């Protein structure tokens, strides 16, 4: 392909009556061709594995529009990272990338009989749902490894759509995550971490609904429905909609390590998380959201 491109350029130059320096032309085409391969190799298939070093070597223009900014790096290897009791470690660049979301719904199995099942959903959010740059401390306590999340991009507003068309907004998050392993290590394929995290409200206290009602500002009732909100029992139907509240709920997550690069202190694997969806500031009951995907992390001694 390189030789063919060189011949085409030389032919065009001669046809235009231009004088050409073949060594210089060869060098220019070689440089341009190498740069083209470097960029196109990340645009062909977004599902291809990409390492941390490869991501860091790319420029903004090479990443823009490719979806790589929403990807977690891949780890290769099955090494072992030892953990010593009484010594503190720091996990940096923790990246959590969901691959699928399911929502618990009542599904009819027979006439008049329903069961709760997790059904597949369609993602309605752009590729901005991956959590990244999360950091925290890891130490061995009472024969178990404990990670404490402290900082990073630890939440992302996400919306999925159920097969019937209903859209379910939620905050995909791991805020205040404190997972514990079933052993004191070492970190190797099969190493696990599990724990709970905080799920903040999808809306802030300053949010106003279409009728101007909010938590700390706005109206206390729907002005277009004043007749329904008078009397002793008139407010019952719209009580939850009128009395907004900032819900802070809980979620659970489990990590399982499958790959370890001991030389660079990298590890990765899969995760499963369950958490509640948005409650519309207390107006409706949350749905149970099941997230599955991959994660990446880097560990170093403090």
Global geometry: elongated
DSSP helix count? 5
Taken in chain order, the helices and strands follow as: HHHHEEEEEEEEHEEE
CATH domain class name of the largest domain: Mainly Beta
Into how many domains do the coordinates divide? 2
Can you tell me about this structure?
15% of the residues lie in helices and 38% in strands. The chain has 302 residues and is of the alpha+beta class. The protein folds into two domains: 2-63, no CATH class; 77-203 and 246-301, Photosystem II, cytochrome c-550 precursor (Porin). Helix 1 crosses helix 2.
Blueprint (SSEs and pairs):
Elements: H1 2-15, H2 22-40, H3 52-56, H4 60-63, E1 88-110, E2 113-120, E3 122-123, E4 131-141, E5 144-153, E6 155-161, E7 167-173, E8 192-199, H5 239-242, E9 249-261, E10 266-276, E11 288-301
Antiparallel strand pairs: 1-2, 1-4, 1-11, 3-6, 4-5, 6-7, 8-9, 9-10, 10-11
Helix pairs in contact: 1-2
């Amino acid at each position: 392909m390189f030789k063919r491109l060189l011949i085409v350029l030389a032919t065009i130059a001669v046809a235009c009556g231009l004088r050409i320096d073949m060594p210089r032309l060869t060098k220019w085409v070689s440089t341009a061709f190498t740069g083209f391969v470097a960029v196109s190799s990340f645009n062909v298939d977004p599902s291809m594995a990409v390492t941390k070093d490869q991501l860091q070597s790319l420029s903004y223009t090479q990443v823009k529009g490719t979806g790589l900014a929403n990807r977690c790096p891949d780890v290769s290897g099955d090494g072992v990272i030892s953990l010593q009791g009484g010594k503190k470690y720091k996990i940096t660049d923790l990246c959590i990338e969901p691959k699928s979301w399911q929502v618990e719904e009542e599904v009819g199995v027979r006439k008049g009989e329903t069961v709760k099942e997790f059904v597949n959903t369609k993602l309605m959010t752009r590729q901005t749902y991956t959590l990244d740059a999360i950091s925290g401390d890891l130490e061995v306590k009472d024969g178990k490894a404990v990670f404490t999340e402290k900082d990073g991009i630890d939440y992302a507003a996400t919306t999925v759509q159920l097969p019937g068309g209903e859209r379910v907004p939620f905050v995909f998050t791991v805020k205040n995550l404190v997972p514990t392993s079933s052993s004191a290590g070492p970190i190797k394929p099969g190493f696990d971490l599990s724990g709970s995290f905080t799920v903040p409200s999808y809306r802030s206290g300053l949010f106003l609904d279409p009728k101007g009602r909010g938590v700390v500002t706005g109206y206390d009732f729907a002005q277009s429905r004043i007749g329904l909100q008078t009397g002793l029992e008139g407010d019952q139907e719209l009580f939850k909609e009128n009395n907004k509240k900032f819900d802070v709920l809980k979620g659970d997550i489990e990590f399982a390590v499958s790959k370890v690069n001991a030389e660079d202190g990298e590890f990765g694997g899969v995760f499963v998380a369950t958490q509640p969806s948005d409650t519309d500031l207390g107006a409706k009951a949350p749905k149970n959201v099941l997230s599955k995907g991959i994660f990446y992390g880097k560990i170093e001694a403090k």
